[in-house]
Amino acid sequence: MDLRQLRYFVAVAEELHFGRAAERLTMAQPPLSQAIRRLESDLGVELLRRTTRRVDLTDAGRAYLARARRILDEVDGAAHEARRVAAGAVGRLALGCVGSATYSLLPALARGLSRELPGVDFSFRGEMLVPDQAAALRAGGIDLALLRPPVADPALTVLPLRRDRLVVAVPADHALAARRRLRVADLRDADLIVHSADRRSVMYDVVLGLFRDAGVEPRIRHEVGETSTLVTLVAGGLGAAVVPEPVTALALAGVAFRPLVRPAARVDLAVAHRAGRTEPHLTRAVAAVQRIVRAPAAEAPPGG
């Protein structure tokens, strides 16, 4: 099928005049007339009835015009879609968030990504631990992850975003809630709620490292899999927890958040995807995530 012949025929059929059609196509009239003759010869039917005064469509020509328009619309639509894909304007992406990012960043990410990439269909999974995120990235269950390094996996590309302060979540009626800030040593006699060691949580290692460096033996009383459960248990008076500052976005009644100082501990946040992926819509999404997460609003001080 010669698409040029189709375009030539549609122009003549719509103008019903070779001269006007030639002007519309920015070409000379004789080559246009010859192209239509070749098309009719190839098809073995007369599409246009020509007189010295006018051009009319035959019945075959009217039927052919309807199909030709649909074909050209499909071809033009396919070209437009291909250009949008190449520009990263369309596609599907699933993003998995570590627990603390679920509450503080997922709403902003959902709005920001929809605004910046309106043609990309995003889905989100929250409350994922880093090992589960890494496995989902490798298996294709998610395309992007907001996670807490370290991630020692050569199959993944990990790009740093920011460093979050660590804060202490304590029951609002606990004696420690009366203090403006806390040190690890202040938690020496406190029952602790931590993320599960069995599920290889990064925060579990971070918290134990803080206590080890401070020379304090942690009194771990509860291990949980989800950050929301962890903060809920704090609200229930079952213990204190060291968490990234974005967890304060949960703002549960019965919980007070206090900055952790001496040292002012922080934990990294990064965006990751499977190494080697270069699809334009994924590349644009990574850049958008970097802009959204690094926005000044993300650096608000922890609440009480």
Structural description of this entry:
With 304 residues, the chain is of the alpha/beta class. It folds into 3 domains: 84 residues, Winged helix-like DNA-binding domain superfamily/Winged helix DNA-binding domain (Arc Repressor Mutant, subunit A); 105 residues, Periplasmic binding protein-like II (D-Maltodextrin-Binding Protein, domain 2, 3-Layer(aba) Sandwich), CATH 3.40.190; 104 residues, Periplasmic binding protein-like II (D-Maltodextrin-Binding Protein, domain 2), CATH 3.40.190. It has 10 helices and 11 strands. Strands 3, 4, 5, 6, 9, 10 and 11 form a 7-stranded mixed β-sheet that branches. It has a two-stranded antiparallel ribbon with strand order 1-2. Strand 1 and strand 2 form a beta hairpin. The longest helix has 28 residues. It is rod-shaped. The relative contact order is 0.15. The C terminus is likely disordered. This is LysR substrate-binding domain-containing protein. Belongs to the LysR transcriptional regulatory family.
